[in-house]
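Please go through the protein record below and explain what the tokens say about the fold. Record follows.
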Amino acid sequence: MTHDRFDVVGIGDAMVDIIAQCNPDFLAQYDLKLEEVRAIDDKLSAKLQSEISNPKRQAAGAAVNTLVGVRSLGGRAAMIGIIADDELGQLFESDLASANVQFHRASRRATAPTSHNIVLVTPDGRRTIGTHIGCGGGLTPSDLDADLIRSARITYLEGYLLASEKTRSSLHEALRIAKSADRMVALGLSHRSIVGKYRREALELIRSGVDILLGNEAEITSLYETTAFGEAAHRAAQDADIVALTRGRRGSYVVSASRGIHASVEPCARIVDITGAGDLFAAGFLMGLSEKNSMELAARLGNVAAVAIIQQLGARPEKPLAALARSKGLLAPPRPEYSEQELFC
């Protein structure tokens, strides 16, 4: 086969997001702090789900959000993860298929339930997340599809998998497979709490051969234990070839050992929900690199995708992002679609 099967293959938690809007008083009722991410048990998960109104349920996880964004931009995307044989697992698989993202499911049976997030969004667009880990922490190196990884231009690693020894070993093995095939590897830092708690493990992975490091200001300063954004970015560029960072209304910054780029934020009419903003920036950035191998274009495309997603509820684009990107001159005309046999056999 002479062509690449996928632009991006992601490795991360296979989760279902249960998204609902709420008032701050509701959070206080369950001792939840605004904007925190915390683990919840079966009892609290069931109670919250019984109390929220009109929840939106969809396949999710940081890597999933990014891959759906890549697909919305016209790219070809695939996901490696683990789900259970339960209602949420079935929803995850069918929902990802509806988004035209290929899913490689671990062949062994998961004993814990499918992982899920209860995402509570306050009127100002801020989110509080209760995470039920379920089977999400069980991905092992033997669950990886080496041929799938070798077939992608970029392998995207989700930072949340740094949280356990088992899943960290899966990230290292995926990196090894991709690098042996001369493919690029990207790592998303996912959340400041993850890089703060697993700083040594994150740096070890990055220095093992990560080509592209993606994160926001809070994550990168936490990783390098400094309050100075510029210092953190400079140090990161010594560990990874390309470092792409977001700073909210200040736009995005891309640095390498030899240069730095600033891309201004795109106009934003209103902020509805910031869920998935970083994940969609990653989608645009990786798609830009895959399509044009240009850091400037990648940064602008990341900004476009991120701003589009925060003007709606949830991290799934409601309209195809490719048309928006093409209207701004950031994407080429659509590429011919390969047949299912060409892509997945």
